[in-house]
Amino acid sequence: MRVKLKFSATRQNTLIPLNYNHAVGSLIYRTLGNASEEFAARLHDEGFKAERRTFKLFTFSRLWMKRNRIVGNRLLLESPAVTLQVSSPVRDFIEHFVSGLFQSEVFNIAGADFVLEQAETIAPPEMGERMSFRALSPITESVRDEQNRVRYLGMEDDWSEVMQRNLIRKYIALHGRAPLYDGLHWAWDEVYIAEQAKRNRRPSVLIEVNEGIKVRGWLVPFVVEGSKELIELGYEAGFGKSNAMGFGMAEPA
User: Which of 5, 62, 76, 207 lies 20 to 30 Å (CA to CA) from residue 244?
Assistant: First the structure.
């Protein structure tokens, strides 16, 4: 399930960091804690496990702002309106999150205060075995190289196997079993990539999610084919890794 939130900054010319992912993630955990401190702590500390991996099984979009400009390493909001989407396949997460929203009058993002103007659930789209998506937050994945160092995947890599393995593990973590059908093929929108190249634009971003920790993600439309169960889970929990840090949210194109 997905929730769309519309906030308004309490002050004119509000400033927030360019790298606001950690601050938004903290806001989500605080909101969960308003309704259930036990659930928020368990999700943060333990999460959902499968094959020695831990997943939080939620994701969130980039902040959408009507008007803003960069001032140094921060964003100046020239309009107070800010929109955020939060998504999870875990019913308890959504119930606690929505309940927690209405137990706060002011929401803080990296020292900036906002009030909630509107909260609405987004009806889930009808999923098929072939879906086109646009990224609402960067998509990221990584592998280990020959020196056992983390290497983030680029456009030249084959994402299908890595994405399939990631979604199968998430499915097991959520349901306690593997999906009945687990086929999956991933393809980036080559036309979009070519258009960006003509404009000398790289369709990726490097985001500092915590001090000294940077993650590269891709803001490129994509097509995914295969298991409807896995595609639906990717829509709800996020595609790829680092979903709880604000990566992997997408919507049907």
Answer: 76
